[in-house]
Amino acid sequence: MSQISPAPLTSGTASLPAVPVAAIPLRELAPWALLFALLGALVLFFVGVDQGAVSVPSGVYVHELVHDGRHLLGYPCH
Asked: Where are the transmembrane segments (predicted)?
């Protein structure tokens, strides 16, 4: 069997073309950050706190839907 020799290393460094990166103003980013923070809080509420008393669908449907996720995250629910 013949061995494949590695490619020779070059002593020069390859320069990459400069790619301009546009700055995103905080004023445009803030509404999206707020939206995702509220959605995250809503998800945490349904997974961690909701016991069916204030659920939009009445009963324990949401609780049973996220039951295993609660145990996985360490929330007590029994």
From this structure: 29-49
